[in-house]
Amino acid sequence: QVQLVESGGGLVQAGGSLRLSCAASGRTFSSYAMGWFRQAPGKEREFVATITWLGGRTNYADSVKGRFTISRDNAKNTLYLQMNSLKPEDTAVYYCAAGATEFNYWGQGTQVTVSS
Hints:
Layout: E1 3-7, E2 10-13, E3 18-25, E4 33-39, E5 46-51, E6 58-60, E7 68-73, E8 78-83, E9 92-99, E10 105-106, E11 110-115
Parallel strand pairs: 2-11
Antiparallel strand pairs: 1-3, 3-8, 4-5, 4-9, 5-6, 7-8, 9-10, 9-11
């Protein structure tokens, strides 16, 4: 069992930066792939970025590639999302997720609002 708690969201102007964190509890954190997803008002939840359990492979949505960086610190049981050059269209609730073969553990989300 893994419990996930996101933090670091907030209000930022376009062009600014934020770093999201996801603190995980559970002994199997380091063996799970992790990911960030987001859901904007009136839209479905969408993929943002994923990282393998050793952190050797990352994958990004085209809309964030080159601006966002996903990373993890298994010693601290923490997942990160560094978000630079933020745009108003990045406004959403951001969720972290974990899983072995699929993402079946989810956090409650943290709100990111980018003003123009």
